[in-house]
Amino acid sequence: MSKLYTMDDVLSVMKKKAPRRSKRIENAIDKRVERAYYATCSGIAIDVMDIGKVFAFGRTKVLAGEDDAALGASIRAYVETIRKN
Q1: Half-sphere exposure at residue 51, Cβ-oriented, CA atoms within 13 angstroms
Q2: Phi, psi of 26 (to 5 degrees)
Q3: Which of 1, 35, 61, 76 could bridge across to 40 with cysteines, CB 3.0–4.6 Å?
Q4: Based on C-alpha coordinates, what's the Rg of the chain?
Q5: Number of H helices, E strands in the chain
Q6: Model-level pTM?
Q7: In Å, what is the CA distance from 58 to each residue of 10, 15, 19, 63?
Q8: 36-to-1, 10, 71 alpha-carbon distances in Å
Q9: Is 49 within 8 Å of 14 (Cβ atoms)?
Q10: What is the rounded distance in angstroms from the CA atom of residue 33 to the CA atom of residue 72?
Q11: Which one-letter DSSP state was computed for residue 33?
């Protein structure tokens, strides 16, 4: 009989195998997105549930190779489509 694995078992093994470098890179990308968001979208009201969408959009733009100015402009354009007021 084989051992049953839970999702926690699988995730703990994945965390042990994952290099720490990927975590640092993800943090650096998130910091770039955060800086661009706060620099260009400060004061714009959006729904709390849309913050994750903005960060996901920003991550795709960073991975596409956009510089900080283009990143800020593209995030601003995206936020304009989902803003509340």
Answers
A1: 9
A2: -60, -40
A3: 76
A4: 17
A5: 4, 0
A6: 0.69
A7: 29, 25, 23, 9
A8: 53, 35, 7
A9: no
A10: 8
A11: H
